[in-house]
Amino acid sequence: MATSARKKPVKRRRNPIQSRGQATVDAIVEAAAQILARKGPTAATTNAVAARAGVSIGTLYQYFADRDALLQEIGRRHVAEMQAVLAGALGGIDGLPLPEAVERLVAAIVASHRVAPRLHQALHQSLARDHLDTIDAFEVAVEAMVSRALAGRDELDLPAPELTATVLVRGLGGLIRTTLRREPERLDDPALARAMRAMILGTLGESRRDA
Amino acid sequence: MATSARKKPVKRRRNPIQSRGQATVDAIVEAAAQILARKGPTAATTNAVAARAGVSIGTLYQYFADRDALLQEIGRRHVAEMQAVLAGALGGIDGLPLPEAVERLVAAIVASHRVAPRLHQALHQSLARDHLDTIDAFEVAVEAMVSRALAGRDELDLPAPELTATVLVRGLGGLIRTTLRREPERLDDPALARAMRAMILGTLGESRRDA
DNA sequence: GGAGAAGATGAGCCTTTGCTCAGATCCTCG
DNA sequence: CGAGGATCTGAGCAAAGGCTCATCTTCTCC
User: From which residue to which does any coiled coil extend (chains A, B) (predicted)?
Assistant: First the structure.
């Protein structure tokens, strides 16, 4: 109960006007992301971030109302990056025959998770329950996208494309996240990619109306 | 790099001898688990835990070397509980025909995650990277178990049962964890269970040697 | 009964960390 | 040039939280 997402309207104290300010903000976010990725959430203290960014702690608080706002900004940027990679790799997939489309999808989803694996993990850890909104929104969008793509293929004849999309997206996401944490190198294993394709194709086949 | 798991040998300061001590330890662990589940990792301070357990902070440190040791103990107990539920629900599954076996598996895996969903989430968040060993060990065990079960069914004719098991277990786990966080009530949805069965059966079919 | 171990207490030390503020410095533009 | 806004500085405040230790109470067992 009470998962009421009280909106925290970005809480930026001052928006950079001069290019100098923009550069500073970028440096801060970059530094924070690095620390987060390399040493985990607890190491990403505001003082440490400021130090690594090469600015004073005061400067950091000139642009971010509090530590949380900084973390949220990192989340936002990371999601945007993943989204870009996904969108790029998925362009024109609708026209492709199913097997190729699936192959592309797998490649795309893997690629999107490879953008910044450690950071990805760290964000899932450090973003408090109330602040996973950004990530959640992204996942919802991906599910919707896949759902639409599935519904568009009459050949599949799915009785509930949304449900199938949900299962596939969350399942694949979880699989990749777990693998990333435990055996990161394995993400490059062609056998794993093959298995993922089998999972998708099999799920689609078994979910057909007549199955 | 340096994911070297430095072993922290349980670091219990004193093992309870008298039953009074055992009760105290239980109360502490119980209190900590509750706070963790209800208010998240940050709320589970040692002082708060001691207060809720109805013991003094000194008593807590009589049994646990540090906060981390306490968290690890909670993880250990939680995993044991999940394992018990899983094992119980999966007994004699080998003899069953495939569809029923899959149905049982889905039910079992869902049930095991329903043991203490909030705590489950909190543990995944709060256990530092170096201390996920307990959870990881459990997941590895489950994968091995499923792998064995799959290999035992000649009908399936899987070229790589371990790989299929890995994909299935991690995929299902991720799916359930995500759903648990975003739409917990949906775990009871029969449609979701059906979709999960479709995913499993489909993946198995598509992974067959001749597929 | 009583010695000694087990168990319990809680004030408070000490470190960490988020964050403020009073001012210095840099830029832009008329 | 110089006024005024933008930017930056960093010592240090205040709160939070992990943890210690000197001391007291309860239990066990001969």
Answer: none
Q: Are A118 and A33 in contact (CB under 8 A)?
A: no
d(CA A133, CA B150): 38
Q: Give, in order, the Cα–Cα distances in Å from B91 to each of A99, B95, B145, B149, B173.
A: 38, 10, 12, 12, 20
The closest nt to B17, taking CA to C1', is C6
Q: Tokens 């001749």 identify what position?
A: B210
Domain range for residue A160? 74-206
What is each CA distance from A110 to A114, A176, A206, B30, B53, in whole angstroms? Answer: 6, 7, 24, 39, 45
The Å distance, CA of A206 to C1' of D14, is 61
Q: In Å, what is the separation between the CA of B17 and the C1' of C5?
A: 10
Looking at the partner chain, which of A125, A199, A206 has a beta carbon nearest the beta carbon of B125?
A125
Looking at the structure, do residues B102 and B125 belong to the same domain, yes or no?
A: yes
Domain count, chain A: 2
Q: What are phi and psi for residue B190, nearest 5 degrees?
A: -60, -30
- Compute the distance between CA of residue B31 and CA of residue B49 in angstroms, rounded to an integer: 6
CATH number reported for the structural domain that contains residue B140 in this entry: 1.10.357
Residue where one domain finishes, among candidates A65, A90, A114: A65
Looking at this protein, which amino acid is placed at residue B20?
A: R
Q: What is the pLDDT of residues B134-193, one digit of tens each?
A: 999 999 999 999 999 999 999 999 999 999 999 999 999 999 999 999 999 999 999 999
- Whether residue A1 is contained in a domain is answered as no
**Is the same domain home to B119 and B163?**
yes
- Give the span between the Cα atoms of A166 and B192, in whole angstroms: 9
Confirm whether A3 is domain-assigned: no
Of A160, A166, A191, the CB nearest to B163: A191
Q: Would residue B174 count as lying in a domain?
A: yes
CB pairs under 8 A between A and B: 114
Residue ending a domain, choose from A19, A36, A65: A65
The CATH number of residue A107's host domain is 1.10.357.10
B118 in the same domain as B199:
yes
